[in-house]
Design a protein that fits this description.
15 strands, seven-stranded mixed sheet, six-stranded parallel sheet, 11 helices, Rossmann fold, alpha/beta, Quinone Oxidoreductase, Chain A, domain 1
């Protein structure tokens, strides 16, 4: 089969499109013909050696995928050949024509969800859902600021925040991105490249501060948000797409009485698979009801995976990028 192979940590253009062995299928696993692969920021970091995980090389990157079951191991009873599924790989390997994963990590895909959209639903929406539900305990009527609100996980946070009854403030770097956030339910728009974010937040909240901040960007935007939190607020640390990991002055948490909360979705799916499954069922129900959707900005053939990774790395994507083998 064909796959994208990372032979060593190196610039994206050194990823290889080549033959790779078809994976074996263990007794508790399922072999899936991959239909679509969701592109995520950590994918681009991983192959360059910039992520906290450092896989043995060579390896096939990619974690989020949809596809059709080709075969199942002898212990698998809840899936069969021909089932439409979506899943997360435990050891990457999604950027290939086939993937073998523990069957327990596969979720059936209803017929009304296109496979490309299914491949973009787990990580972006799953992260936002876990962050806002389990980590922030977001309540109806609270204010939610989403940074990078037109990116894959930012757009998901806008949609899910609205589904949970919050007033959603979208922060983006361009007016074009803000328009997309508005189309997906944002109530208030802030261009933090042209407007002063600190002033805007103080005026919008009448000095109270924001109840919940969803921050996948980091850097100076985190620093501004840390000074504009409401009492009992929750500042969610989702990632550092801006490239700069900020240093937090902990005295602010004491004086302003809010919490800085880490969000690591991958660890959650492994630590509490039952809650993860419950979240996915809720997400799929919201999708069916039209409360969430996957906005696909562009699709790439498998051979152009490096270009897709570069686009998300440089924050050019609006919504999700999808690779199709």
């Amino acid at each position: 089969m064909k796959a994208i192979v990372c032979h060593d940590f190196a610039p994206l253009e050194q990823l290889a499109f080549e033959d790779w062995p078809t994976p074996d299928t263990g007794a508790d696993e399922a072999l899936v013909n991959v239909a679509a692969i969701g592109v995520n920021f950590p994918d681009a970091l991983l192959v360059q050696g910039l992520y906290q995980a450092k896989p043995e090389r060579p390896f096939v990157p990619g974690a989020e995928f949809s596809g059709v079951v080709e075969a199942v191991g002898e212990n698998v009873t809840h899936l069969k050949k021909g089932d439409r599924v979506v899943g997360l790989s435990t050891h990457y390997s999604a950027c290939a024509e086939q993937i073998s994963v523990p069957a327990a990590r596969l979720i059936p895909v209803p017929d009304h969800i296109p496979m490309q959209e299914a491949a973009g639903l787990i990580l972006a929406h799953g992260t936002a859902h876990y962050a806002l539900k389990q980590r922030a305990n977001l309540q109806p009527g609270e204010t939610l600021l989403v940074l990078g609100a037109a990116g894959g996980t930012g757009l998901a946070a806008v949609q899910i925040g609205k589904a949970m009854g919050a007033t959603v403030i979208a922060g983006c770097s361009t007016d074009e991105k803000l328009n997309l956030a508005k189309e997906n339910g944002a109530d208030v728009l802030i261009n933090y490249n042209s407007d002063d974010l600190h002033t805007q937040l103080r005026e919008l909240t009448k000095g109270k501060g924001v109840d919940v901040v969803y921050d996948p960007i980091g850097g100076e935007l985190f620093n501004v948000c840390s000074r504009n939190m409401a009492p009992a607020g929750r500042l969610l640390v989702v990632g550092f797409a801006g490239g700069d990991i900020p240093k937090f002055p902990v005295n602010l948490a004491l004086v302003k009485e809010y919490a800085v909360v880490g969000v690591f979705f991958g660890a959650f799916t492994r630590r509490d698979p039952a809650a993860y499954a419950d979240n996915m069922r809720e997400l799929l129900a919201w999708y069916k009801d039209g409360k969430v959707q996957v906005h696909i900005d562009a699709t790439y053939p498998l051979a152009q995976t490096a270009e897709a990774f570069a686009a998300v790395m440089h924050r050019k994507a609006r919504g999700k990028l999808i690779i199709t083998p």
